[in-house]
Amino acid sequence: MLAKRISYRGKVQGVGFRYSVRQIAEGYTVSGHAMNQPDGTVEVFLQGDRGEVEAMEKEIGESHLAGFIREASGREVEAVPGVKGFQIQ
């Protein structure tokens, strides 16, 4: 199990970024959320099988969202028990 928090900077708020990330998540066996942050970034929390988490992170960066992303930084974190599905917060 891998859990990761990824912070996306750029024009990522007000452009449907979180909704698009949720759509991408439907193709993977991951759980987590996408949430706007007060500093203008979007935080994406993903957890699941390492291959699934890494593949989804890669797809976000290669999708139509890439044009909105100026910088992405991720870090591994502790998994959160009981999280199911992928939510927009």
Structure overview:
With 89 residues, the protein is of the alpha+beta class. It has one domain: Alpha-Beta Plaits (2-Layer Sandwich). The chain is 25% helix and 39% strand. Strands 4-1-3-2-5 form a five-stranded mixed β-sheet, with helices on one face. Strand 2 (30-36) and strand 3 (42-48) form a beta hairpin. 27% of the residues are buried.
Briefly say what this structure is:
With 89 residues, this protein is α+β, with helices and mostly antiparallel strands. It has helices at residues 17-25, 50-62, and strands spanning 2-10, 30-36, 42-48, 69-77, 86-88.
Helices and strands: which structural class? alpha+beta
Shape category: globular
User: What name does CATH use for the topology?
Assistant: Alpha-Beta Plaits
Distance between the termini: 23 Å
Fraction of residues in H or I helices: 10-25%
What is Rg? 12 Å
Largest sheet: 5 strands, mixed
Task: Looking at this protein, list some descriptive labels.
89 residues; alpha+beta; Alpha-Beta Plaits; globular
